[in-house]
C-alpha cells in the first residue's frame, strides 16, 4: 500500500453533519433493490435514528416498500398490520410495540422505533404504495405455531392444514416452550419434529392461493411455517455446532427475505435492518475461516444482478443499552474508547467527529486490509472489551458504505408489561 489506513481515511472520509449528508449514500445506492443497513450494537440511539432517516428517504425517493428487521415474525407482523391499517384497533405505535415481549425487548420496543413506525403509518395513510414492516428471525417457534393455528382455525375450510398444524405443535408440546429442552432432545434423530413441520410448510406452500387476501394472510402463514421448520433445525444444531446453528439462522433470514420479496413481486425493493455481523459480507471477516456465512454474503451471492448495497455503522465511545447475561434486565452501559488501531479508533484519531465513507473503484484497495472492527451484542461487558468484541475485517469488501458516529447515546427502551425469554 502506498499510504496508511489513517491517511486513506483522512483523504476519503466525508463529514456527516446532518441528514442532508445522506444524499451521498442515496445517490450511491442508485438502482439497487436490496439495501442492508447495519448497526454495531442493538442498543444505540443514533444507529436506529439514522437508519430510519435513510429508510424514509429510500421509501419516498426510490420506491422501497419493504422493511425487514432482525426480529420475530409475529410481533413484527403486528407492527405491519398497524402500519398498513389492516386492523381497526386504535393504537399508538408505542402500544403496538408491546408485542415485542421476548427478551431482548429493547431491540424493537424503543422510542426510536416507535417514532419510525408512527411515520410509516402516516406515510402509508397518504400513499397509494404501502410499505410493510416484517420480521425475519426464527426465535418465535411456539408463537409462530400458535399464529398458524389461529389463522387456520378461521380460514381452513377443509381442516386438513389445521390438522397438520396441530400435529406439529403437539410434537413440540412436551418441551414446555423451552428451546434448550428441545435442543437436548433433538440430539437423538427420532425425537425431532422435522417431519411434522416439513409437511405443514409444504402443504401451505402448495395451497397458498387458498389464503391470499388483502391482509397478507398467505404470506403470514408461509413465513410462520418457515420459522417453525428452520427453528427446529436451528435448535437441533445449537447443541452440536455453533457454526452450523449460525448458518441455519442466517440462511433462514435470507430465505424469509426472498419469500417476502416474492409475495410483493421480484421488482419490489427491500431495506434490511440487522446487526453489522449479519449484513456485512462474512467473506470479508474472520467468520469466513470458520465456515460461517451471513445475510450480507448470501444476498450478494443470490441477488447480485438486482443490486445489493450494504451500509455499516460504528462508534468510538458513548453509551448503550445491553445486559450482563442472557435474559438479565437491560442496563445503560458506558461504551469505552475503542481499542488502539481498531477501525473505530482510527476513525476517531483522524478527527473526533462524525464521518461517512463510500467505497468504490477509486479507494476500494486502500481499505481492503485487515483491521479490527467493534461489534457489541445484547450481552455486553465493557470492562472486558479489549479482549474481544472486535471482528477482523476488510472494510471495503464488507460494506459499500460506512457511517461513523464518534460519540453515541443509548436508545430509550419502552417498558414491556410481561417480558419473556
UniProtKB/TrEMBL annotation:
Q: What is this protein called?
A: Erythromycin esterase-like protein
Q: Which Pfam families match?
A: Erythro_esteras
What InterPro entries does this protein map onto?
A: Emycin_Estase (IPR007815), Hydrolase/PRTase-associated (IPR052036), UCP036794_erythomycin (IPR014622)
Single Gene Ontology BP annotation: response to antibiotic
Please give the superkingdom of this protein's source. Answer: Bacteria
- Coiled-coil boundaries: none
Amino acid at each position: 500500500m502506498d499510504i496508511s489506513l489513517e491517511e486513506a481515511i483522512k483523504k476519503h472520509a466525508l463529514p456527516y453533519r446532518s441528514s442532508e449528508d445522506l444524499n451521498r449514500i442515496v445517490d450511491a445506492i442508485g438502482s439497487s433493490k436490496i439495501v442492508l443497513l447495519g448497526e454495531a450494537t442493538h442498543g444505540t440511539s443514533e444507529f436506529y435514528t439514522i437508519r430510519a432517516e435513510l429508510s424514509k428517504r429510500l421509501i419516498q425517493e426510490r420506491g422501497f416498500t419493504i422493511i425487514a428487521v432482525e426480529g420475530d415474525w409475529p410481533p413484527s407482523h403486528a407492527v405491519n398490520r398497524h402500519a398498513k391499517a389492516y386492523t381497526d384497533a386504535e393504537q399508538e405505535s408505542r402500544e403496538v410495540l408491546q408485542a415485542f415481549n421476548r427478551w431482548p425487548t429493547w431491540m424493537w420496543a424503543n422510542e426510536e422505533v416507535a417514532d419510525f413506525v408512527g411515520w410509516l403509518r402516516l406515510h402509508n395513510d397518504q400513499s397509494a404504495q404501502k410499505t410493510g414492516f416484517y420480521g425475519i428471525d426464527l426465535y418465535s417457534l411456539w408463537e409462530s405455531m400458535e399464529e398458524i393455528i389461529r389463522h387456520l382455525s378461521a380460514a381452513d375450510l377443509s381442516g386438513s392444514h389445521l390438522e397438520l398444524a396441530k400435529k406439529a405443535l403437539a410434537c413440540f408440546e412436551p418441551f414446555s416452550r423451552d428451546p434448550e429442552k428441545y435442543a437436548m432432545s433433538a440430539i437423538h434423530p427420532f425425537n425431532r419434529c422435522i417431519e411434522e413441520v416439513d409437511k405443514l410448510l409444504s402443504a401451505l406452500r402448495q395451497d397458498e392461493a387458498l389464503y391470499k387476501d388483502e391482509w397478507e394472510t398467505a404470506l403470514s402463514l408461509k413465513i410462520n411455517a418457515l420459522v417453525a421448520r428452520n427453528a427446529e433445525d436451528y435448535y437441533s444444531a445449537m447443541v452440536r455446532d455453533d457454526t452450523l446453528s449460525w448458518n441455519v439462522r442466517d440462511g433462514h433470514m435470507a430465505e424469509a427475505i426472498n419469500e417476502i420479496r416474492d409475495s410483493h413481486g421480484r421488482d419490489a425493493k427491500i431495506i434490511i435492518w440487522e446487526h453489522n455481523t449479519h449484513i456485512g459480507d462474512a467473506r470479508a471477516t474472520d467468520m469466513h475461516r470458520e465456515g460461517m456465512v451471513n445475510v450480507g454474503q448470501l444476498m450478494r451471492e443470490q441477488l447480485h444482478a438486482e443490486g445489493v448495497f450494504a451500509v455499516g455503522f460504528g462508534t468510538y465511545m458513548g453509551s448503550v443499552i445491553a445486559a450482563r447475561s442472557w435474559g438479565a434486565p437491560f442496563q445503560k452501559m458506558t461504551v469505552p474508547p475503542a481499542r488502539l488501531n481498531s477501525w473505530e479508533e482510527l476513525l476517531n484519531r483522524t478527527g473526533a467527529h462524525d464521518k461517512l465513507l463510500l467505497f468504490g473503484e477509486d479507494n476500494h484497495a486502500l481499505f481492503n486490509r485487515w483491521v479490527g472492527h467493534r461489534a457489541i451484542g445484547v450481552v455486553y461487558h465493557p470492562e472486558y472489551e479489549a479482549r474481544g468484541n472486535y471482528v477482523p475485517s476488510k472494510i471495503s469488501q464488507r460494506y459499500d458504505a460506512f457511517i461513523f458516529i464518534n460519540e453515541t447515546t443509548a436508545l430509550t427502551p419502552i417498558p414491556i408489561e410481561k417480558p419473556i425469554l
